[in-house]
Structure prediction request, 960 residues.
Amino acid sequence: MVKFRPAFLSLFVLIVVPVMLHSSAIFPFDYKVEELENGLKVVSIPQPDTPEVISYYTIVRSGSRNEIEPGKSGFAHFFEHMMFKGTKNVSIEEYTNFIIQLGAGTNGYTTDDYTCYYVVFAGRKNLEEVVRLQADKFINLYYDEEMLKTEASVIEGEYYASFSSPSRRIYELLRDTAFEKHSYKHTTLGYLRDIMDMPNQFEYSKLYRTRFYAPDNAILLVVGDFDHDQLMEMVQKHYGGWKKSNYKLVTPEEPPQKKAERAHYDFPTRTLPRLAIGFHGPAYSEEKIDKAALDLLAEIAFSRSSSIYQRLVIEEQKCLSLYAGFSDRRDPYLLTFNAVVKQEKDLPYVENEILKELEKFKKEPISEEVLSDVKSNLKYSFARDLDTTDHIAGSLAFYINLATDPGTVNKLFDLYEKVTPEDIQKMTKKYFNKTNSTVATLTGGKAK
Amino acid sequence: MRKNIKYSLLGVLTLGLALTMLSCGKVNPNKLSSEFLHREGNPFVSFRILLDIGSANDPAGKEGLCQLTLNLLANGGSKSLTFKEIQKKFYPMAASVGLRVDKEMSVFSGTVHVDNLEKYYAIFKGMLLEPGFREEDFKRIKTNQLNFLERSLVSNRDEQFGKEILNLMMYEGHPYGHYQSGTVETLKALTLGEIKAFYKEQFVQGNITIGLAGGYPSDFPAKVMQDFSSLPEGHTPQLSLPEQRMPSGLEIVIAEKKTPATAMSMGFPVSISKADDDYFALWIAIAHFGEHRQHLSLLFQKIREERGQNYGDYAYADHFIQGSKKFPAQNYCRQQQYFSIWIRPLANSNRHFVLRQALRELKKLVEEGIPEERFEFARTYLLNYTKLYAQTLSEILGWKMDSKYYGYKDFLAEAQRRLPKITHEDVNRAIKKYLNFENLYIALITDDAESLKNDIIANAPSPITYANPNMPARILEEDKIIQVFPLDFKPEKVRLAPATDFFQKAGLPKSS
Prediction:
């Protein structure tokens, strides 16, 4: 029996008073990290000033990174869908009814490195029922082959929902070309050919679950109005019986790139031309300076206030947009430069200007003033996203996936503070070499 | 009905007096309105500068003028600063100015840390009150708007494209009847002189509500009111809109393009909005039938969950734009509203089947109403879920403003008060009164449109195949009914046009 208790939440009490930047740490809230015997980690951030609202996140280290076998691209995302099929104890109808009556904001999403399931709800009284149902969902998930086949069609539909997006197409192309062996070669959604084969993957789905949907590969993140000790009692009670996996994921090591790569996509309908340039870069680290320095470079060189953005987007108006994306990943990933160009004839020019800009940063160290502006921007951007329990949890989920302890955010920002103009110059020289580059272009409009 | 309550704060020297006046009622329609939500100790301040104008205020032949003008304010320089200088100054603050333009309402927004409030506001104020109107900004923004119309909307955003075709169909010859960006023809012809004239005419005090929320200093609202009082007094009278045109039977427009997936939107105008008592009953019905991105949605259950046809299927009692997460965005209020169904892209091979299925479910809803237990269920859901609608400062402020538009002190609080009083009979009565299944506008984006046209006119059977060879017998039995469910498409009500023909000129393109 699923128990629902109405929450008498008054409106407009949801806001968390977020970070004052005068405090020394960018992530200012008290938190605790505990681990159950079965390896399940629990990150708890009580927010007593946010009456009645709790954000309950489950982070599973299952993403496209985990899809190491040929033909299995997109499986982490597919499995996220299967997690909403119910259990033998609590049918999906019963679970859904509880969530609906709770009026919870709930969903799941899959990334390259992890899958996240969240329930945001009002009512401290409902916490134990949420803990119980979430634990049951992960421990006792049940689906049969027919259910899997039907859900596979939904994935095909999700692929179609973004089919007309040229951004998605060029992103797929860039990764597919830049990576040779690592599972970052494919996107989270996966190759269409693998999606079409998902109905036949019932047996593999069981293997996938055994490997990755286990307490030693998952983290609970709870933010909001609750008592930490009570939470831990509930977690121990309901998750204590979840069996460890002990599976050690070994991702294929990406060999050093030997030569510059290029690829092109003919988009079937009219669209603005697109350019994406990728360089192999380092993995996330809260200790090594490489990635932190590169994060700052991305902002200095390609943010809206950068000289190349101002020139190509605002003054010359060659580009509709221009940005750098140096995403943090568990394994070494790509440092990308992306442009939507207004005219096809300008694609080579824009590509050349981006590469010239990188050469400039190899030769000339940036000024302390510019560096200070970037550090300020990063701080205020992060702080702005800490205004509700859900925003706190949403921001942290990414970092917790990478390093488990929320303190990693403070370490990262401390590292940013230490980055010097010389560090940035050094990293620019180290990573932005022609042989380490992949250029993808996309143009469209030849078909009707 | 919309309560056009506005307040004059000219001459108000203290915030205390200003806040007192907020509860006093409208003083002068030609002067500024305000909405202040002070949150002591909150280190952020959110701005919403709301305008009572939108694309419906575009003069005939000048479609796109309102959006282009406001875009030039939000993404162009001020008299004293170029846009480049503005971006440089905003950057260390991680600040920006956002803009959303709808039919009758537009809003500039921004959130900034109190550390930077004075610096940010000085720039923000300059952008809105003393715009630079530089030729280079005008050219850049106009080109971007044109590119969006010609190359993005019709090629890269099929779901939005479908919704905009539905809008063109519902509002032909109506002030709502063009996309906010205008048409390629009208946009190309717009001049900087026309932009300046539109700004002068529309950027007047009576059209503006100053919204502030957060931990601003106590004298800050009065300062903002004082600054914006430099604008000329005056207001644009609320548009007197023509009666909405109901479809006659099933009217369908098919935009043809090379694609493996079909996007669908359908709907019709309704004579109800959040301002009406019946809205709360209809809201429950639509939550049951198609709640946005929730398992509660019956359409979602039948089309996605049971049959795996696509990523989602939803319905809306009024104009809906998704805000943060899956919650509704604010400041899209309109005098006239419409009911709609959104079917997300699905394989072309199943388009006829799903079209039949959606319309059959609508027919069942209208004829049978909603079951008692689903009524209770949907109502409880709304009572709880709406508590999460306003979480951030900006969202709380946005809902306050929308509440005022629809005549409430607080719409979300009103929902908590009203929903428990709605009966099952109220809901089924509202369904009968406002919904129908025989007269609908339907917009489709698909490939091989001619073949679809022939199939729907002939009412050809549309059997469906599944990846799962062991679909439950209950579903297969229902499929036999759906695949021959008769739809009365008259040949003259089926219009076809290449996707690239849309938004070139006002209205729908000529049928091919």
Remarks:
- Chain B touches chain A through 87 residues (CB under 8 Å).
